[in-house]
Amino acid sequence: MTDALTERQREVAGLVAEGLTNRQVAEQLGISKDGVKYHVTEILSRLGVSSRASVREALWGPPEGAAAPPAAQPPSEPGEVDFAKHLLDAMRGSLLQRVLRIATATGVVEALRESPPASATAIASATGIDVRYARAILQSLAAHRVVSYRAATRQFRLAPPQRALLTPERPDSFLDLIDSTTPRDPADDRLIALIRAGGGVRLEAGMANEWENLIHILPRPAHGLAPAFRAAPGLADSLERGISVGEAGSGRGRLLIELARTYPRSRFTGYDLNPTAVRLSAADAEEADVGNCDFVEADVTQLPERHDLMLAFGMLHDTPNPGAIVEAVARIIAPGGLFVATEIAASSRLERNLGRPLMEVMYDLSLMHCVPHSVACGGDGLGALWGQEATRDLLAAAGLDVEVVRSQSDAFHNYFVATAGGRPAPN
Ligand SMILES: C[S@@+](CC[C@H](N)C(=O)[O-])C[C@H]1O[C@@H](n2cnc3c(N)ncnc32)[C@H](O)[C@@H]1O
Description:
The radius of gyration is 23 Å and the shape is globular. The chain contains 20 helices and nine strands. The chain is an alpha/beta fold. It folds into three domains: 2-61, Arc Repressor Mutant, subunit A (Orthogonal Bundle), CATH 1.10.10.10; 79-205, Winged helix-like DNA-binding domain superfamily/Winged helix DNA-binding domain (Arc Repressor Mutant, subunit A, Orthogonal Bundle); 217-348 and 386-420, Vaccinia Virus protein VP39 (Rossmann fold), CATH 3.40.50. S-adenosylmethionine is lined by residues 204, 215, 218, 248-251, 271-274, 277, 299-301, 313-315, 318-319, 325.
């Protein structure tokens, strides 16, 4: 439906959907109020809706595809929704403080203040920081609505109200307040130092603290493979009968252990580069008493084994070369096998993600964890929101036929269900 809109109209519609007034939209985008009014009339007509309130649904559709916050669930107790919203607002606020501190300490805020609308490359050259970090910081700032983003030119702009509040030595400046009230997280200090020095840090280097935390806080693939069954109807039966399943980047191994318990006739092997993750997963499998599940320290691009089904949950964007993983998986499952990957439910285009629930949090976590890891590995710094279009293209480039499934039960992720060479799934 949004294909009917121009880039500019999509930008305006995104802000309207967030509840901004015409004046606020005008300030954000640096255009006149009359211009916004004109765009809104056009948007309503092109979307075939009659009110600003309907723009939100027309734009983002039902909650299924979007990362729906807990507040979107019907409350079981009075007050539950408000408390969920309160917690989410607190989380957003504290992350915004941290991102603003990082953006200020790395010179990004100053560069934005002093330049006309600028691309990530321009901000990188003005600050001397790596463009992968400049892009990630700007994306976070855009998600928090600190800067506006013009998709047609890929430029970011600090609008006058934000510029005023983020200018030092003005009586209304927030900079000192932000600096003095943001909790000093050693991980942020390290990130700031890394960004200034142009380095990265591998996730596994922080094991037992940051990496462990991240693995624990990420939404679990609670419903396992269930969403994929819609695109691969024979898969559940195959698992019942017994097939061989491998997981690329099995992390803490929870998905495989759960699957091994559910499908005792199938055989499961998790591969991960991280020895600690492999050791902990193997211990968990033993404690869970599942005899059909192993964890192996291995680079999945080097596997001689074949599997009927390969999984890669939330791992492709973190690898320095996701193309190599996908090509290896295509080889491992051919002929006739199946590949199921999950990635955060997002578009590859920033402007399509802006204003979606929890996107700020996703972009912030990506800046703080995924991008430094990718930089350390010499990757492209794709970030956790590299998105549906890029993932689909990558799978197609490896000769896989792919279907994207969105799940109501796991709204945070897109499920990519791909078959090798268009052959049928195992049955
Ligand atoms: C973000 S974690 C995801 C872990 C798990 N799938 C989950 O959903 O919690 C990515 C994992 O992929 C692993 N990994 C990255 N590249 C790999 C490769 N080439 N071979 C095996 N594991 C890899 C990392 O060590 C890390 O444990």
